[in-house]
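Quick one: structure tokens for this chain, please?
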Amino acid sequence: VRVRLTKEECQVDRETFRLLRAEETRLRRERMPEKRDGIADETMKRPLSLDILDPDGEGAFWQTDPRDLFEESILKQMTAQFCLQLTARQLDVFKRCLLGGMSLSEYAKKEKLNYRAVWEVREAIRKKYSRF
């Protein structure tokens, strides 16, 4: 196996080589532009090279998970605890609008409610959150 940027070469076993080749093929397919109405889509995905992640070569930085799972688990627990304090309507607005990204006006139309009523529910959620 050779790293294009550094021209560094190393030997790997057959199974590892097959995995690397399959990943390269998958990345190449992702880079292929999709055709919509006969026109190639210019917003294709471009994979990043692993070479840029560890420029000093001091370790296998690219193998580490950049996410902080401890913080994520605390956030999930706190969100679950906060949801226990909400009424049914507040919970629905919280999940669909505040977490889900639906606008208040869309929610009001779907639920056949007045926009002002939904806005007041959101304000009640914000007050509870500030106390929480």
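The beta strands are 35-36, 39-40.
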